[in-house]
Specification:
mainly alpha, 33 helices, flat, signal, Mesothelin, glycoprotein, cell adhesion
Length: about 575
């Protein structure tokens, strides 16, 4: 993208998608047009910039400061309107010191740093915003803040009553879930909102917060208001069994999830059936190896339910235990359905297990995510993939078809040098994301010509990745003169070795570690003497040139050859 539009300024900024403007070369924009440019850019999604291009955020804001005449860390309301979504890239100092209107712009941001959250809280708690003094805040304040309450912490939430928070969260959390907000964020929200309203532990262990019933569970704010002690005391085993799926779906706190698993072990002392295991949802992530040992995982439906990415990440050892337990079942194997189900958890398995995957299973599965696999595991999967997709629409033995490349693409992290060189001559044009996923050791072995062939039309993108460790190491291994042939501005290669004078080189070979002299006479009856270290000499003579030469030892012959070579070189010089 950057390559195609960075120099194209031939159209009006408002006529094309705002995200394209992120890649423009600002030097091509006249000062009279800069405000129009940044106004249009303000509608862009700055999060689409890859990590390799994240530096452009700073460059864009620096240019905006110059264009709009911004000095210091205070930005006016007018300029905030022009910057638009660029406000999402500002650090905390700008958030605190700019017009409070900045909060309205921040409502459009997809995420925040800790520094930005701190600044928003300072600004809100100052009372100098349209939301007024914290003492006057109500549930309407929460509703008017848009998405911001998701990120704010306990210092903000303590300004609301427990009743206000519960009413708000009942609606807010439901909206967050429907919009696909990660469970980790919802869990953090609940924890921060509840910190100042923990129910004090009583001397006894009775339920004081209110028995958990089906009605309680159906409230979208559930389990807000219950700490671990009260959750344990107020949730009966029978209520848990009757409402398991609903309870596990709403319970994100790991401590509460542990209570759920403990009660299930009480409810099913002989082991937990496949049907119940399938309803564990996010609570499964709080399990220990001992818990998993009590689960029945005999069907692919159970395996799929446990591996759902939306329920959270698995500890590799635990995911391995789950998959292995399934594979130990009669007739179970890593077929196509299983491969699709386990997803990236595939990398938790041993290399030997991965090597045993059949070609037909891999061929029938979707593209697998093996980015978390070790190099050895990637190599094993690449070998299986080669067998699965070999000779499918291939053009010849030495080239690889585009169809075959696309099928193999997810597994190229395990590709060797020979395969990549075949790709290099196959007119593929590999994208940089795929290139960066290759084995670093194999990348180091690629020549400049290999890389040119691999990347094709995407070659200019390599410049934006030249500070990445993998690319930087490759550059340092290449001659700068070879890099220059790419004509994309790569720097940092090795200098071209200078040519050493032949006489000097020969003399250095003939004389090792000392100041001795070497003389030679060819074609006559003179003597040849070679001295090493200045401490010894060996003499060989010939009456008729080289014809009747008699040497005393192999060492003498070696010295004679060196001396003769030196004489010839000196003569030529």
């Amino acid at each position: 993208m950057y390559i195609y539009v960075k120099d194209d300024v031939s159209f009006n900024f408002t006529e094309y998608p705002a995200d394209l403007l992120l890649y423009f070369s600002y030097s091509k924009i006249s000062p009279s047009d800069c405000r129009a440019y940044f106004t249009a850019l303000g509608f862009a999604d700055f999060s689409v910039l890859s990590s390799a291009l994240s530096f452009r955020k700073e460059i864009l804001f620096s240019n905006a400061r110059t264009c709009l005449g911004i000095s210091g860390t205070s930005i006016s309301r007018e300029n905030l309107d022009i910057l638009g979504n660029m406000c999402c890239t500002l650090d905390g100092s700008y958030i605190q010191n700019s017009d409070p209107y900045i909060l309205e712009k921040l409502k459009n941001c997809p995420d925040f740093t800790v520094d930005q959250v701190n600044a928003m809280e300072v600004l809100l708690l100052s009372g100098n915003t349209t939301y007024g003094s914290p003492a006057d805040w109500t549930i309407n304040t929460l509703e008017n803040l848009g998405i911001l309450p998701l990120y704010l912490r306990s210092s903000f939430w303590i300004n609301f009553t427990k009743r206000e928070k519960k009413r708000f969260l009942r609606v807010f959390i439901k909206e967050l879930r429907s919009n696909g907000v990660p469970r980790s964020k919802i869990r953090a929200l609940r924890q921060e909102a509840q910190k100042q309203h923990r129910t004090k532990r009583s001397v006894g262990s009775g339920c004081t917060e209110g028995e958990i019933t089906q009605v309680t569970v159906n409230n979208d704010a559930f389990p807000f208001g219950y700490n671990v002690t009260q959750f344990d005391a107020c949730l009966s085993v029978q209520t848990l069994k009757d409402n398991l799926e609903e309870i596990t779906d709403k319970t994100d706190d790991s401590a509460l999830q542990e209570v759920i698993l403990h009660k299930l072990n009480q409810a099913y002392p002989g082991g937990i059936s496949d049907t119940v295991v399938q309803m564990l949802g996010p609570a499964s992530r709080a399990a220990t190896a001992e818990d998993i040992a009590k689960w029945n995982i005999t069907t692919v439906d159970t395996l799929s339910a446990l591996m759902k990415p939306s329920d959270g990440e698995w500890n590799p050892d635990l995911s391995k235990a789950i998959i292995s337990k399934y594979l130990n079942g009669a007739g179970n194997s890593l077929g196509s359905v299983e491969l699709n189900s386990v997803g990236s958890n595939l990398c938790a398995l041993d290399t030997s297990t991965l090597s045993s995957i059949s070609s037909s299973s891999l061929r029938g599965a979707g593209a697998l995510d093996i980015s978390n696999c070790t190099t050895e595991k990637k190599k094993a999967l690449f070998t299986v993939a080669q067998s699965a997709f070999s000779n499918r629409n291939a053009m010849s033995r030495t080239t690889i078809s585009n169809t075959n490349y696309q099928l193999m693409q997810p597994y190229l992290g395990g590709a060797g040098l020979t395969y990549l060189r075949s790709l290099s001559s196959s007119n593929i044009s590999m994208d940089l994301t795929t290139f960066m996923s290759l084995d670093p050791n194999v990348i180091d072995a690629l020549s400049v010509s290999d890389v040119r062939g691999l990347l094709g039309v995407n070659l200019p993108d390599l410049v934006t990745y030249q500070t990445q460790t993998v690319v930087e190491n490759w550059i340092q291994r290449q001659l700068q003169s070879d890099l220059d042939t790419l004509n994309i501005g790569l720097t940092g290669g090795r200098s071209t070795p200078s040519t050493t004078a032949p006489t000097t080189a020969a003399q250095n070979n003939a004389t090792a570690g000392g100041s001795g002299a070497t003389t030679a006479s060819s074609g006559g009856s003179g003597a040849t003497t070679a001295s090493s270290g200045g401490s010894s000499a060996t003499t060989a003579s010939s009456a008729t040139g080289l014809g009747g030469l008699s040497l005393c030892s192999v060492t003498g012959l070696h010295i004679l050859i060196v001396a003769l070579s030196t004489t010839v070189l000196q003569f030529l010089h």
